[in-house]
Description:
This protein is about 30% helix and about 20% strand. With about 300 residues, the protein is of the alpha/beta class. It folds into two domains: about 1-160, Rossmann fold, CATH 3.40.50; about 170-295, 3-Layer(aba) Sandwich (Rossmann fold). The strands form two sheets. It has a seven-stranded parallel sheet. The protein has a five-stranded parallel sheet with strand order 10-9-8-11-12, covered by helices on one side. Strand 11, helix 9 and strand 12 form a beta-alpha-beta unit. The longest helix is centred in the last third of the chain and has 17 residues, at about 195-210. The protein is elongated.
Amino acid sequence: MILYYVQGGGLGHAQRTKHVIEHFSLNIQRIVVVSSNYAVTKVLPREINIHYFPTELYQRQNWNELRKIFQNIFKQYAIQNFWIDTFPYGIAGELAYISLPSEMVCTHLARYLKWENYKRFLASEIKNNIRFQNTYFLEKLHPEQHLFLEKNSDNLSPLLLNYSSNCPSLEKLPKWFQVLRQKYKFLCLIVHSMPFHEIEQLFLFAYQHCTQEISINISEVHFLVISPIPSPQNLPKNLTWQYFFPAVDLFTWADLICTACGFNIMQEIIPFAHKHICLPFERRYDNQFVRYESYQQGKLFG
């Protein structure tokens, strides 16, 4: 059995888990996903066993309780393979306190981390070192992060996941989207999970782009926010707020797409780069500004 450990908020981590499972043709009957992110239920097949870890365990750093939960899962499902998403020692360094059986095969899916913020979890006093049989890096890594994983992995190699859309026909998309697409001459998608104030910034950024960079009357532009958070009241007439997943299925039908610079969206947007604008935001561990620069240079993978 495989234990797939994925932490972090939003839909991105859950969506990446889905793509990894598909890429490696993992048997969904033999996977246990452990997460504190309820978004995984929106994305992963129902057949997969999902265990939720309360976020309070991480906030209180209750590693003794977490250790007991891990041990029970290891035993209950006879776990032989441990897949760790993004954070090599967990989002809060919690895996340094989990004893892994010596025969456990560990695999790491690496994404760019602000290593200056994360490396405090890798101090010399950590109790349990993890050796990765395979580490796959999904984008160019922080130099120190790359060196650390090179030292602690038997195999280190790049991995390009398939983020392409099926590009459904307009008739197969929701009726509300069909109406918007047929009604408005120019449709601008703004795709972002949260928080609200960042969605506001993306709207202003897209509005400014349409007024200054595109030869079109702003009265002919309609803005569509795709987000799972509830729509605010009293939206302007030129703005619609909806939730649709996966948003990438709408991209073919948009005239302009405005996003932040999170890992998943920057993979999904590559085929639509000609009509894409983006704005990086500050994160504790993710560096959207570095990703933005790499994207602008066409060097997401180094």
